[in-house]
Amino acid sequence: MTPDQTVRDAEDPVVAALFERLPDPAARDELASRFLPLAEHLARRFGGRGQQHDDLVQVASLGLVNAIDRFDPDRGVRFSTFATATIVGELKRYFRDRGWGVRVPRSVQEATMQVNRVMADLWQELGRAPTVADVVARTDLTEESVLEALDASRAYTSASLDEPVGDSGAVAGDLLGDHDARYEVSEEWLAMAPKLRTLSERERRILYLRFFQDMTQTEIAEDIGISQMHVSRLLTQSLARLREQG
Amino acid sequence: MNSLEEPIVVGGPARAETVALLRAIAASVAARRDMDVVAIEEFRIAVDEAATLLLLGGTATRLEMSLLPTPDAGVEVRVRTDVDASAFQVDRATSWPWRVIRQLTHGAELTVADAGAQVAFVVGKGPGA
């Protein structure tokens, strides 16, 4: 049973009574305490993206308090539903504001944005992955600056925030997602897949296609329906996260 | 920019900071071999994973990388530590770093000898994209 279910099953009469007592601070505290497991649960869903768990719990808790203050019981929506939407919104805003996972100087951030834009154009024009020389010729940047910008791209955590991660109950086959039923699951994958539980389904899928199906980044991009640059970034971030886990 | 003609050897303490140095040098050399951005990124990943595999395999004091040009504009790479061979442990069957290295490079080899452990491989211009 998830904390969400725990909250939902227990909420109606007691929670309604607590909301009737607002703005009584004791009732507000009781509501916050009662729904804290929901906030913690949602914070965990956003884990593994380069932010500290404690920080995420704090952000989720703030979202919970906002939800308590803004909830209108007369609108016929369950508080757990309203609180979930509010907390998730708060967590997403937090990630948007902190897209750069590590400290990157402003000049490098700007160069990275420029390089990414130019690379996307060049990819279209050339029909292949551009070289550093191609990018240098199209910008006012030096070769070293382009390399630095490419490296800095790894620090930008742009993974989809709509994909929960960490489904610890999943088995190796599940870790591919339903869409991968057409692929044969090798013994090697079965042995290695449990290490990927902290990744999102899409990240696991990209790793599987690249390292077990021998597909190129371009082929994976076409298969999944995202850009090659996005595949590259997700691939790099996933592997970095696995390295951090040891 | 195809200017790598002589071997390059670089190294430092067996720590994460040195891995970042090796990765940056690998990328710079790859750019000078006119590899595309995907090949460069996957070269960086391969170096990262090789260093990770070696550092996790056993305690070492020194981490080194050598880069040698190949006739077809590729690079032969050797990443090594001075780990005590008897203490080095890597289960290749379940090692993600080893899987990644094998997939992204050509001719990957992991050798353990008295002098330490080494991951060797060759990277070229493709196919990575």
Relevant terms:
heterodimer, A: 246 residues, mainly alpha, elongated, disordered N terminus, B: 129 residues, alpha+beta, 5 strands, 29% strand
Mind sketching the topology for me?
The complex is a heterodimer of chains A (246) and B (129).
Chain A (H helix, E strand, L loop, with lengths): L2 H19 L3 H21 L7 H18 L8 H19 L8 H21 L5 H7 L4 H11 L33 H6 L8 H11 L5 H8 L3 H18 L1
Helix pairs in contact in A: 1-2, 2-3, 2-4, 3-4, 5-7, 9-11, 10-11
Chain B lengths: L7 E6 L2 H17 L4 H21 L4 E8 L5 E7 L14 H9 L1 E8 L2 E8 L6
Antiparallel strand pairs in B: 1-2, 2-3, 3-5, 4-5
Helix pairs in contact in B: 1-2, 2-3
Summarize the structure.
The complex is a heterodimer of chains A (246) and B (129). With 246 residues, chain A is mostly helical.
Can you characterise this structure?
The complex is a heterodimer of chains A (246) and B (129). Chain A has eleven helices and no strands. Chain A has 246 residues and is an all-alpha fold. Chain B has 129 residues and is an alpha+beta fold. Helices cover 36% and strands 29% of the residues of chain B. Chain B has a five-stranded antiparallel beta sheet, covered by helices on one side. In chain B, strand 4 and strand 5 form a beta hairpin. Chain A binds chain B through residues 119, 128-133, 135, 143-144, 146-147, 150-151, 188, 191-192, 195, 210-211, 214, 216-218, 228, 232, 235-236, 239-240, 242-243, 246, and chain B through 1, 23-24, 27-28, 31, 34-41, 44-45, 48-49, 52, 56, 93-94, 96-97, 99-100, 103, 127-129.
